[in-house]
Amino acid sequence: MDDNIENFIKENEYLYARVSSVEYEEFINLYTYLEGYTSFSTQHKIKGEEFENVLIILDNAKWNDYNFGYLFDPSNLKCNPSVLMRTQKLFYVCCTHAKENLVVYCNKPTEDMADTAEKWFGKENCFKI
To answer: Could you give phi then psi for residue 53, rounded to 5 degrees?
Structure first.
């Protein structure tokens, strides 16, 4: 170790402690993913890409910019129009990047959401798991 590294550690103790506790293999996995060397991606990193298989996981998490409940439940009166529009665009982007297989997964769909999915994708293509 030289002075630059020692100074960095002193000035960034918290960061150094967190990073140094990460297994090397996990660091390499993160690097590989961030640099685009895996077959996995997010909807925000797929511009211009196509994939044989696409899995869309409908999960609002803590996002306020998107709401998949709005998308699949058009009767929702509390729907924010700008959030709905962003959600529609995002969903469209995700769906149109599948060349062969598209799977849309929703953990706990409402009855209205399931009905909409059956209308869009066909009842024979919708499964409860």
So the answer is: -125, 135
CA–CA dist 50, 47 (Å, integer)? 9
Residues 58 and 118 in one domain: yes
Residue 113 sits in which domain range?
Answer: 41-129
Going from the C-alpha of 58 to that of each of 11, 34, 87, 92, 108, the distances in angstroms are 41, 22, 10, 13, 10
Please, is 65 exposed, middle or buried when counting C-beta atoms within 10 Å of its C-beta (0-12, 13-18, 19+)? exposed
To the question of pTM greater than 0.90 for the whole model, the response is no
24 and 58 housed in the same domain: no
Write the pLDDT tens digit of every residue in 45-64.
666 678 888 899 888 777 78
What whole-number distance in Å separates Cα of residue 37 and Cα of residue 41?
10
Q: How many distinct structural domains can be found in the chain?
A: 2
**In 34-97, at which residue ranges do the beta strands (DSSP E only) sit?**
51-58
The amino acid at 29: N
Domain identity same for 95 and 56: yes
Task: List the structure tokens of 113.
Answer: 């959401």
**Sign of torsion, CA 80 83 89 94?**
negative
Residues 47 and 30 reside in one and the same domain:
no
